[in-house]
Every structure is written in structure tokens, then in C-alpha cells.
Design brief:
This protein is mainly β and about 575 residues long. Helix content is about 10%, strand content about 35%. The chain has helices at about 10-30, 185-195, 325-330, 345-355, 415-420, 550-555, and strands at about 35-50, 55-60, 70-75, 75-85, 90-95, 120-125, 135-140, 150-155, 170-180, 200-205, 220-225, 230-235, 245-250, 255-260, 260-270, 270-275, 280-285, 295-300, 315-320, 335, 375-385, 400-405, 410, 455, 460-465, 465-475, 485-490, 495-500, 520, 520-525, 530-535, 540-545, 560-565. The strands form 7 sheets. A 6-stranded mixed β-sheet has the order 10-9-12-17-14-15, with no helix packed on it. The longest helix is centred in the N-terminal third of the chain and has 24 residues, at about 10-30. The model is unreliable at about 1-10, about 15-20 and about 25-35 (pLDDT under 50).
């Protein structure tokens, strides 16, 4: 008789495989009625790229910049194998995908997974349930998303139509941000010295800076259109640190979708889009071919006191000429410029955001939680933290700028929160005492208090399954009021109201829109103001919430919600996949 000694890791692996098999069989039964499975292979590799007269090596997917487009239909399952061939640790996030019971595939480093190390791979496995529209994917570790990003296009189910006229053509328009220097070096130096990271050198449209920058006239995105046709532009803001105004000279756009949720169509000449947001617009080309080309311009909406990249990226809208016109006329057409709002036009920002309303129809209902189980009030903003004795920082008394939610600057753990939660090993990793309200009250948007020091820690809010949450996010004026685009992983939320100044819990709830509020995954907290949102915590797992300005994320403006399992099988998080990266 032969005895085999099993280690605890062998037993754990066997248990995991058994559990996974049980879940897989029951999920396969459901899959018969779902869409198809689509496979993608993402090789993370370095690529030499020249922009603004300078060549540098950047991190890419499959050598492409921007990265490849993912196309799927509502109901499809995606299997994306990511292989890391670079020196950096990597994770990818599928921004805006609900990840229902698939939190292991969400992607934020040290939140839902340990990073994919050099030479390692991981298969992101998730289904697209009840979503259709434009989203995007990007790296979710350090500042790698500067070059690791690409569109996600989710088409409606077969034979389902758009709730707006069928466009002649669909075009992704992805805004990015470009540095001549290496972005990892920039953020690492800033964190070491306690200074603000260097601002970018250019913005890009589909990876191209355009004619307003040095050496970039040939690096210009061109959109060719036919007179009288309607085009669906899928706008994505993948920039790191800047909200953007976007406008096409002498043309009107019709907004039909925001963050992959259909909205009541409205016309506008300028779109405001924060990092992390997506907006679908219809562009109706003029009925007759004009004798001009038109600038498609994007530049920052910036509200904080810090310096910013005050440049403009330009693409060109060109009309296809008829054959006779092409033969007779070869002269260069004039380029008509787009006049954008002032860089700090908060009034325009507020008016634009208030126009976004859910369709709220029988086919596309707005399922706003009517009753509220838990109410939270979170301040979001800046402050200072002491530097270590070995550092020489630029702030007073050896301090550095930092950012926080309810005065807690988030400390990244060294193992993933989701693993610690799932295996009941949270001790020493995180605590569940994240404050429901700010630790002390002050005039949030008035004169800042004398003490602007923050605390730091890895704190989360724990919620029972199916808790309905109402959350007020309040900007503060500490180190300057500023608009903060807050992104919640794992959920869409409803934007009930927003206002300037301090939220008034007595009067402001009367302004809440409980009929057709915008349903989003990323919302701009107004500069010197507040926004109120609601969401239903119906997705078990650990869900990151953070500012989508990367500099603020680096400084700690982030936290997490732990949603516990419910009682039913479909209310529980399945075990992790066997190839989940190790820390």
C-alpha cells in the first residue's frame, strides 16, 4: 500500500477544482440560452513609437497603439488571454462591464487580483449581461493605462435595434494623453519627491495628436463622411488626468448614450467627457458637400489650482467629393476651427451633465432603488501626508500632497482584497471601519480648516447582498476645489442630483430625480459642489471606487465596497479561477 502525503496547497487546489467544476456545470446549463463565446489574445509587449519629434518605447497590446478593439454582443462571453512579455507587472480592467459574479476578472491590481508578472498569463473570463453600447478596457496598475487602452463595442442582441435611427457607419473616437517622457518614471519620481507629476505634452484622437503640435501634421485623425449620412461616434475619454470638451466645427451632435446606457436624445455642439466616461453621439453630415473641412477638437475642462496641459488635439472631418467635383477642383479646402468653452467653464459642465437623462421606457427602464437601506456622505478631495524620514519632500514640514475619501487616503495592500475576503483572511489586509461620514465637519467648500492632514489605511465598507445605497459625494476646497470623476466598479448607479456648495441634507433631497436620472459608472463630482447617487449592491465581491484622474488615484483618492454573498446560488461569488495570478 502506497501513502501519498498531500500538502495543504494540494488539498486547497483539489477543493478549488471540485468547486469550480460544480459551478461550471450549472453555468453551462444557463449558457445554452446565452450568446456566443469570443476569444481574444492580448500579448503585452514593448513597441517603439515616434510622436512630437521624439521616439520612445511604450507598453502595448499586440504592438498596437491604441490597443485592439473588442467587439461583442449583449449576452456574449469573453475569454481574453493576457500574456505579459514586459518588465512591469500588469492588470487589465474592462471599464464599465458589470462583472456579475465574475469579480475575479475585474482587474484592478491588489483589489480583485494580484498583477500578472513578467512571463506569466491570465485569462479574463466574463459575460456581458444586460449591457450594450460603448465601454473601454485599460491597464489598472500604476500609470500603465497611458498607453494600454482600447475600445469595447457591445452591439445589441441579434435582431434588436437601436432606440435611435440606424447610423450609416459607426466610428470609435478614443481620446488619449501623451507624454514625451516615460510615464512610469514620471509617477515614480513624483511619489519619491512628494511633488506633482509632470503634465502631459499632448492629447490624442485615436492615438494621433494632430496639426496643433510639433511634427504632427501627418499624425492627424481624419474622418471622411458622405453628405446627408448619419454617423454614430463612440467617444471614449482614456486620458489620464484631464476631463475634455469635444466639438466639431459647424456641426451639431445628438447625444444618445452615456456609459453604455441609452439616454433621452439631446442636441449639443460641445460634449463634456471625463476620464472613464463614454458617450455615443449621432453626427448628421450636411445635406450638400461643403467647400471646407472641419476641425474635430478636444481640450481640457480644468477646475483645480494646479497647472494642466492646456493644449488642443485636432482631428479633421472631411466630406467625400463627388467624382465630377474631384476632377474639376483639387485646391486645398480651408479648415474651419471649433470654438470650445473656456477651460474652467463649470456652468457649461453643470448644464451639460443635467441634460443626461435615462430613457426610462418599458423596454429600457430606469430601475432606481426607491427605498434606501444605507446612507453615506463622502468628502472627496486633497490634503497632506507626512513623508518618510528617508524622503525629502517639497511640502511644509516634509509633507506631500495626497488625496482621500472621508479623510482616509487609501493604502494599497500587498495581497488582493478579493482573495482576502473570499478566503476569510482579511486580518492584517483590510478593516471594515471605513467612515460613513467625514470624521469632522467643516465648511467643505469654504475656507479650508487649519489642519489639512489626512489619515491613511486600507479601509472598506462591508454591505449585505442587495443593500440599496444612497451616497452623496462632496468636493472640498482643501488645496483648491476641483472636479473629481468618480468611478465605481461592478455597478451602474443613478445620478439623482448635483449642486454647487455644501450638500444640504434637509433641502437638497427634494431635488432628487427619481423618475429618469442618468445611469452611469463614472460621474464628475462638481468643482466646489456635490453629487448624489444610488445603487443596488446586487453583485457579490470587492468593488473599487476611485477618482479617474490618475494623479489623484496615485495619491490615495480611492476606497472599496465589499458586497457579501446572498443566500441563493446566483447570489454568491464563485471560487477564483486556477490561473489567478499570485502575489
Amino acid at each position: 500500500m502506497v501513502f501519498v502525503l498531500l500538502t495543504s496547497s494540494d488539498i486547497f487546489r483539489a477543493l478549488l477544482l471540485t468547486l469550480s467544476a460544480v459551478w461550471l456545470l450549472s453555468d453551462l446549463a444557463l449558457a445554452k440560452h446565452a450568446g456566443i463565446t469570443r476569444h481574444y489574445k492580448f500579448d503585452i509587449k514593448m513597441q517603439s513609437v515616434t510622436k512630437l519629434c521624439q521616439t520612445k518605447s511604450i507598453v502595448t497590446v499586440n504592438g498596437q497603439f491604441p490597443g485592439p478593439r473588442i467587439i461583442a454582443r449583449e449576452g456574449d462571453r469573453l475569454l481574453i488571454k493576457v500574456v505579459n512579455h514586459v518588465k512591469y507587472n500588469v492588470t487589465l480592467h474592462w471599464h464599465g462591464i458589470r462583472q456579475l459574479r465574475s469579480g475575479w476578472a475585474d482587474g484592478p491590481a491588489y483589489v480583485t487580483q494580484c498583477p500578472i508578472q513578467t512571463g506569466q498569463s491570465y485569462v479574463y473570463n466574463f459575460s456581458i449581461t444586460g449591457q450594450r453600447g460603448t465601454l473601454f478596457w485599460h491597464a489598472h496598475i500604476s500609470w500603465l493605462r497611458a498607453t494600454l487602452y482600447g475600445p469595447i463595442v457591445i452591439l445589441p442582441k441579434r435582431h434588436a435595434s437601436y432606440p435611435f435611427p440606424q447610423p450609416y457607419k459607426e466610428v470609435p473616437i478614443v481620446f488619449g494623453e501623451w507624454w514625451k517622457a516615460d510615464t512610469e518614471t514620471i509617477i515614480n519620481q513624483a511619489m519619491a519627491t512628494g511633488g506633482a507629476p509632470n503634465i502631459s505634452d499632448a492629447f490624442t484622437i485615436n492615438g494621433l495628436p494632430g496639426p496643433s503640435y510639433n511634427c504632427s501634421a501627418k499624425e492627424t485623425f481624419k474622418l471622411k463622411v458622405k453628405a446627408g449620412k448619419t454617423y454614430l461616434l463612440r467617444l471614449i475619454n482614456a486620458a489620464l488626468n484631464d476631463e475634455l470638451f469635444f466639438k466639431i466645427a459647424n456641426h451639431t451632435l445628438t447625444v444618445v448614450e452615456a456609459d453604455a446606457v441609452y439616454v433621452k436624445p439631446f442636441k449639443t455642439d460641445t460634449v463634456l467627457i471625463t476620464p472613464g466616461q463614454t458617450t455615443n453621439v449621432l453626427l448628421r453630415a450636411k445635406s450638400k458637400t461643403p467647400s471646407a473641412t472641419f476641425a474635430m477638437s478636444a481640450r481640457p475642462y480644468a477646475t483645480g489650482p494646479a497647472t494642466f496641459d492646456n493644449t488642443t488635439t485636432i482631428g479633421i472631418l472631411e466630406y467625400e467629393k463627388s467624382v465630377s467635383a474631384s476632377k474639376s477642383n483639387n485646391k486645398k479646402l480651408p479648415l474651419l476651427r471649433a470654438k470650445l468653452p473656456q477651460f474652467n467653464d463649470s456652468n457649461y459642465a453643470m448644464k451639460f451633465n443635467r441634460k443626461i437623462r435615462s430613457l426610462a421606457t418599458a423596454k429600457f427602464p430606469a430601475k432606481i432603488p426607491k427605498k434606501v437601506d444605507r446612507r453615506f456622505f463622502f468628502t472627496v478631495g486633497l490634503g497632506i501626508l507626512p513623508c518618510s524620514k528617508s524622503q525629502t519632500c517639497q511640502g511644509p514640514n516634509n509633507t506631500r500632497p495626497a488625496a482621500a475619501v472621508n479623510n482616509v487616503s487609501f493604502l494599497q495592500p500587498n495581497i488582493a482584497l478579493l482573495q482576502a475576503h473570499f478566503f476569510n483572511k482579511s486580518k492584517g489586509v483590510y478593516t471594515t471601519n471605513f467612515p460613513t461620514n467625514p470624521p469632522f465637519k467643516f465648511n467643505y467648500t469654504g475656507t479650508p480648516p487649519k489642519n489639512i492632514a489626512l489619515s491613511s489605511g486600507t479601509k472598506v465598507v462591508a454591505l449585505p447582498f442587495n443593500t440599496s445605497v444612497e451616497l452623496v459625494l462632496q468636493d472640498t476646497s482643501i488645496l483648491g476645489a476641483e472636479s473629481h470623476p468618480l468611478h465605481l466598479h461592478g455597478f451602474n448607479f443613478f445620478v439623482l442630483a448635483q449642486g454647487i456648495g455644501n450638500f444640504n441634507p434637509k433641502d437638497d433631497p427634494a431635488k432628487f430625480n427619481l423618475v429618469d436620472p442618468a445611469e452611469r459608472n463614472t460621474v464628475g463630482v462638481p468643482s466646489g459642489g456635490w453629487v448624489a447617487i444610488r445603487f443596488l449592491a446586487d453583485n457579490p465581491g470587492v468593488w473599487f471606487m476611485h477618482c479617474h484622474l490618475e494623479v489623484h488615484t496615485s495619491w490615495g483618492l480611492k476606497m472599496a465596497w465589499v458586497v457579501n454573498d446572498g443566500k441563493g446560488r446566483k447570489q454568491k461569488l464563485p471560487p477564483p479561477p486556477t490561473d489567478l495570478p499570485k502575489c
